[in-house]
């Protein structure tokens, strides 16, 4: 059986040079933020100009409805919409279940069972989930309780997000079993500006884990599913 490879998404890309560094060091997905209040906001037309090579392109949306999301997906040449607001299952279906990465907030729930129950409501209308810290927004640089997530069984593949960096990844890799990781402010020198040294080191840690440290290398991770 082929060992599974963790997905790596680097979010908050605003510059061609950063997209190239992410791809060169092995990112699978890159994210663009279309929330105007974010310091990482990028206009759809500018995102369209950024060449991401073989990396899949994700747009992050907070307040846009399905029609706006679909329009920006076309204009920015996106593969996936990361729905980080109060987007309900109907909205996810209107965007297209095969294109939706739905964000969930473990800190809104008393326990993992509550989180899993909310995720189950979206099982048929998302292709992947992303678990982020805080109760709204994103890019805060705060981590989740990794140990509390160690027992999560998700209905679809899922990414762990929130405050991940070369400093915090070792503990996340040890305690949690997602299908991949989403990294953002932990790889920046300033909001929207990635530091290539941090990008390289974070992805190196994940790929080293892929190759050497996963005792379940022949077993499904997280949900046991895959995307793409
Ligand atoms: O990054 C932002 O500025 C942002 C603003 C509003 C909504 C979402 C946003 N980011 C989405 C992401 O997927 C981030 O990568 C995720 O929140 C983790 O960020 P960080 O804690 O900085 O690693």
TrEMBL record:
BP GO terms, sorted: L-tryptophan biosynthetic process
GO molecular function: phosphoribosylanthranilate isomerase activity
InterPro entries per the UniProt record, alphabetical: Aldolase_TIM (IPR013785), PRAI_dom (IPR001240), RibuloseP-bd_barrel (IPR011060), TrpF_fam (IPR044643)
Class of enzymatic activity (EC top level): isomerase
Domain N-(5'phosphoribosyl) anthranilate isomerase (PRAI) stretches: 8-202
Reactions catalysed, as given in the entry: N-(5-phospho-beta-D-ribosyl)anthranilate = 1-(2-carboxyphenylamino)-1-deoxy-D-ribulose 5-phosphate
Source superkingdom: Bacteria
EC number: 5.3.1.24
Keyword entries, A-Z: Amino-acid biosynthesis, Aromatic amino acid biosynthesis, Isomerase, Tryptophan biosynthesis
Alphabetical list of Pfam families matching this protein: PRAI
Pathway entry: Amino-acid biosynthesis; L-tryptophan biosynthesis; L-tryptophan from chorismate: step 3/5
HAMAP family registered for this protein in UniProt: PRAI
PANTHER family: N-(5'-PHOSPHORIBOSYL)ANTHRANILATE ISOMERASE
Family: Belongs to the TrpF family.
Protein name: N-(5'-phosphoribosyl)anthranilate isomerase
Source species of the chain: Desulfobaculum xiamenense
